[in-house]
Amino acid sequence: MRRLGENALIAEVLAPLATHPCAFGLSDDAAHLSQMPPNGLVITTDALVAGVHFFENDDPGDAAYKAVAVNVSDLAAKAAKPFAYLLTLALPAAPTEDWARAFAGGLARAQAAFGVSLIGGDTVTARGPWWLSVTALGDAPARPLVRGGGRPGDVLYVTGTLGDAALGLKMRLGLADFAAALSTDETERLARRYLYPEPRVSLRPALAAHASAAMDLSDGLALDLTRLCIASGVTATVDASALPLSEAARSAVAACPALIEAIITGGDDYEILAAVPPETASGLGTEARSRAFEAAARDAGCPIFRIGKLAEGAAPPSFLDPSGEPLILSAKGFEHFAL
Amino acid sequence: MRRLGENALIAEVLAPLATHPCAFGLSDDAAHLSQMPPNGLVITTDALVAGVHFFENDDPGDAAYKAVAVNVSDLAAKAAKPFAYLLTLALPAAPTEDWARAFAGGLARAQAAFGVSLIGGDTVTARGPWWLSVTALGDAPARPLVRGGGRPGDVLYVTGTLGDAALGLKMRLGLADFAAALSTDETERLARRYLYPEPRVSLRPALAAHASAAMDLSDGLALDLTRLCIASGVTATVDASALPLSEAARSAVAACPALIEAIITGGDDYEILAAVPPETASGLGTEARSRAFEAAARDAGCPIFRIGKLAEGAAPPSFLDPSGEPLILSAKGFEHFAL
């Protein structure tokens, strides 16, 4: 099996992905973006490490796809339109050509799915398992959409379904007593959601027009909502029974009700959490603005769900059970090298 | 000794470095650059791995400084003005507060030296020794300055001195028979050059006005000049005796003449290699344009040296000894996971 050194890896396998003229076909040290987006640029970076963010025996193309997707998810949550990314790839030894082609295949799938192209990067020697770091660029919306714009009274929304990736991870770790209650199809779908985030790029116009604050959910709803509340100087109440669950997650929770905690605190959702403000200026009231947001999301084909509200206060967000009692959560969410 | 989890590391140690308003004090998922540089943006990324690009027992602040400096060096070679960077930091476990403060201290020194500020990043768990990846942004020059613009007849220049970092690395690896010929001051200076690149940001106006091609030297003059020649579709001859050497490197080569190969093929110089074209349009001839480049560099206080010329042909660059005979090099330069 042929192996590729650094120069061959770049020239033969990665350069064909660099379709944007600013990348000079990866033959240079830096990309030169001469055309700037009219409202500026949103830029984000996220790294994935084998054995931390994916399994060492996962297909390298799946890991490559996920690395681009999680960065695109950050851009989507800022109402930015992704167009390019840089990639740093660290490998412990020269890869086989098969490995390199599988890896690049995942990048190519992500490029086609999200409309981005590779514009630069670096390849280095890893000490330990392989890892990759992506920096992604997007066209900015006219008004920055940040975590800190939420106000008391705003309606809280999430996209898609929550907890699938966390349950999929439990299954892969052999920690899923609930798996017996699921069909093969359902278990496969959960496992897939761990490796294949679906960044909600279609929500961009609705977010840009209506949201007061937004972020993507990567470390679990409980922790990420806490971050949004702290940044916005508010608290929140969430109706736990309103959290959108996939059929598979619903079956799992039916079999093991305590799993609701894994749904609320598990990471890797890559759905969007958004707060939509009252329309005080036009006098239409909160409902009118949130209905406009819902209509815009529906037009974009992006599933969204009301899960609660922001409120005045500095307490951590409350997750209420159907009787209105707050759930006691033993975990907060995912933090790297937590103490 | 207090240890810092991910949230404390970001909020207490890294956020104070994020002075640019687009960074939202690192409280958000992405930076929002609303003001775009007039000629666009140059963007580059380079990662450093402990045990590969620096020693595991090096001061973390020195590694942090080097990570920013090598990215700034890439921007400088493109005649771009650095202004911001993103940082991904991977640690095997929660750092001590001392470690984190030392690390951030190196970033702060680099920020002060190069006029950049931290605008975003990611912190993840490392499997194996720690590593860091930087993506740096600069104001673009009016005309992209790439590797591929060199033409036959162009004069070749390098900045500063070559080979110091390669000799410093040999000393640190205990492979330096030559060290006995050097003063303590000289050995210290070589070791320092390995960890403290001096990106040639002052050469920017001269490069923007006069150079046809440029790149920074990170993998050794021989390999990097080969890359410039391939991208430009030319060959080159270099007068090995014209290569600028520090006093320490000169003493080392005097003690051990074979070290000239380490000077030519060793990495980590982070000096700039530039080609300056003939001034055909104005009829002034090559010498006039190269003299203007030299004058501009002198005005900027940046030491530059003529080392050779580009020429028609596709052969690898030749390094000529004082008698005009080509040196035979056994190594090419540094390549990650070379075969």
Automatic annotation (TrEMBL), chains A, B:
<protein>
    <recommendedName>
        <fullName>Thiamine-monophosphate kinase</fullName>
        <ecNumber>2.7.4.16</ecNumber>
    </recommendedName>
</protein>
<dbReference type="GO" id="GO:0009228">
    <property type="term" value="P:thiamine biosynthetic process"/>
</dbReference>
<feature type="binding site">
    <location>
        <position position="268"/>
    </location>
    <ligand>
        <name>substrate</name>
    </ligand>
</feature>
<feature type="domain" description="PurM-like C-terminal">
    <location>
        <begin position="151"/>
        <end position="313"/>
    </location>
</feature>
<feature type="binding site">
    <location>
        <position position="147"/>
    </location>
    <ligand>
        <name>ATP</name>
    </ligand>
</feature>
<feature type="binding site">
    <location>
        <position position="53"/>
    </location>
    <ligand>
        <name>substrate</name>
    </ligand>
</feature>
<dbReference type="InterPro" id="IPR010918">
    <property type="entry name" value="PurM-like_C_dom"/>
</dbReference>
<keyword id="KW-0418">Kinase</keyword>
<keyword id="KW-0067">ATP-binding</keyword>
<keyword id="KW-0460">Magnesium</keyword>
<feature type="binding site">
    <location>
        <position position="46"/>
    </location>
    <ligand>
        <name>Mg(2+) 1</name>
    </ligand>
</feature>
<feature type="binding site">
    <location>
        <position position="74"/>
    </location>
    <ligand>
        <name>Mg(2+) 4</name>
    </ligand>
</feature>
<feature type="binding site">
    <location>
        <position position="219"/>
    </location>
    <ligand>
        <name>Mg(2+) 5</name>
    </ligand>
</feature>
<dbReference type="InterPro" id="IPR036676">
    <property type="entry name" value="PurM-like_C_sf"/>
</dbReference>
<dbReference type="InterPro" id="IPR036921">
    <property type="entry name" value="PurM-like_N_sf"/>
</dbReference>
<feature type="binding site">
    <location>
        <position position="45"/>
    </location>
    <ligand>
        <name>Mg(2+) 1</name>
    </ligand>
</feature>
<keyword id="KW-0547">Nucleotide-binding</keyword>
<dbReference type="Pfam" id="PF00586">
    <property type="entry name" value="AIRS"/>
</dbReference>
<feature type="binding site">
    <location>
        <position position="122"/>
    </location>
    <ligand>
        <name>Mg(2+) 1</name>
    </ligand>
</feature>
<keyword id="KW-0784">Thiamine biosynthesis</keyword>
<dbReference type="InterPro" id="IPR016188">
    <property type="entry name" value="PurM-like_N"/>
</dbReference>
<feature type="binding site">
    <location>
        <begin position="121"/>
        <end position="122"/>
    </location>
    <ligand>
        <name>ATP</name>
    </ligand>
</feature>
<dbReference type="InterPro" id="IPR006283">
    <property type="entry name" value="ThiL-like"/>
</dbReference>
<feature type="binding site">
    <location>
        <position position="46"/>
    </location>
    <ligand>
        <name>Mg(2+) 2</name>
    </ligand>
</feature>
<feature type="binding site">
    <location>
        <position position="74"/>
    </location>
    <ligand>
        <name>Mg(2+) 2</name>
    </ligand>
</feature>
<feature type="binding site">
    <location>
        <position position="216"/>
    </location>
    <ligand>
        <name>Mg(2+) 3</name>
    </ligand>
</feature>
<dbReference type="Pfam" id="PF02769">
    <property type="entry name" value="AIRS_C"/>
</dbReference>
<feature type="binding site">
    <location>
        <position position="29"/>
    </location>
    <ligand>
        <name>Mg(2+) 4</name>
    </ligand>
</feature>
<feature type="binding site">
    <location>
        <position position="44"/>
    </location>
    <ligand>
        <name>Mg(2+) 4</name>
    </ligand>
</feature>
<comment type="similarity">
    <text>Belongs to the thiamine-monophosphate kinase family.</text>
</comment>
<feature type="binding site">
    <location>
        <position position="74"/>
    </location>
    <ligand>
        <name>Mg(2+) 3</name>
    </ligand>
</feature>
<dbReference type="GO" id="GO:0009229">
    <property type="term" value="P:thiamine diphosphate biosynthetic process"/>
</dbReference>
<dbReference type="GO" id="GO:0009030">
    <property type="term" value="F:thiamine-phosphate kinase activity"/>
</dbReference>
<feature type="binding site">
    <location>
        <position position="334"/>
    </location>
    <ligand>
        <name>substrate</name>
    </ligand>
</feature>
<keyword id="KW-0808">Transferase</keyword>
<dbReference type="GO" id="GO:0005524">
    <property type="term" value="F:ATP binding"/>
</dbReference>
<feature type="domain" description="PurM-like N-terminal">
    <location>
        <begin position="28"/>
        <end position="138"/>
    </location>
</feature>
<dbReference type="GO" id="GO:0000287">
    <property type="term" value="F:magnesium ion binding"/>
</dbReference>
<feature type="binding site">
    <location>
        <position position="29"/>
    </location>
    <ligand>
        <name>Mg(2+) 3</name>
    </ligand>
</feature>
<comment type="function">
    <text>Catalyzes the ATP-dependent phosphorylation of thiamine-monophosphate (TMP) to form thiamine-pyrophosphate (TPP), the active form of vitamin B1.</text>
</comment>
<feature type="binding site">
    <location>
        <position position="218"/>
    </location>
    <ligand>
        <name>ATP</name>
    </ligand>
</feature>
<comment type="pathway">
    <text>Cofactor biosynthesis; thiamine diphosphate biosynthesis; thiamine diphosphate from thiamine phosphate: step 1/1.</text>
</comment>
